[in-house]
Amino acid sequence: GPTTQLLDAGDTTALVPLSLRLEGCPPGSVAILLTGTPASDTNLLALDDPAMAQTVAIELRNSDRSRLALGEASPTEEVDANGNVTLNFFANYRALASGVRPGVAKADAIFMINHN
């Protein structure tokens, strides 16, 4: 499980893909801005459970697998001729410290949509 992958600070779990599909957009390009409660590493998303948040955070990544830090805009994607666009991302857990224990590891993120 994930706790066996998170032995030391900086260790990560496997990437999990996630997509945001937007429909009915006007022509142009779209990016998202990720916000939420920052972890002790302020680029990462803090977990809801305060005890778990001391040792684990959620890292979001762009489609090229580069880190998407909190407060940073993603690369833009062009809206297609039908007004649709899909933004692809990945997420993983990242250990902030050693001693990660099993538990509930969830967080809330806000994806703000920027249209140009």
Automatic annotation (TrEMBL):
<dbReference type="Pfam" id="PF00419">
    <property type="entry name" value="Fimbrial"/>
</dbReference>
<dbReference type="InterPro" id="IPR036937">
    <property type="entry name" value="Adhesion_dom_fimbrial_sf"/>
</dbReference>
<dbReference type="InterPro" id="IPR050263">
    <property type="entry name" value="Bact_Fimbrial_Adh_Pro"/>
</dbReference>
<feature type="domain" description="Fimbrial-type adhesion">
    <location>
        <begin position="3"/>
        <end position="114"/>
    </location>
</feature>
<dbReference type="GO" id="GO:0043709">
    <property type="term" value="P:cell adhesion involved in single-species biofilm formation"/>
</dbReference>
<dbReference type="GO" id="GO:0009289">
    <property type="term" value="C:pilus"/>
</dbReference>
<dbReference type="InterPro" id="IPR008966">
    <property type="entry name" value="Adhesion_dom_sf"/>
</dbReference>
<protein>
    <submittedName>
        <fullName>Fimbria assembly protein</fullName>
    </submittedName>
</protein>
<dbReference type="InterPro" id="IPR000259">
    <property type="entry name" value="Adhesion_dom_fimbrial"/>
</dbReference>
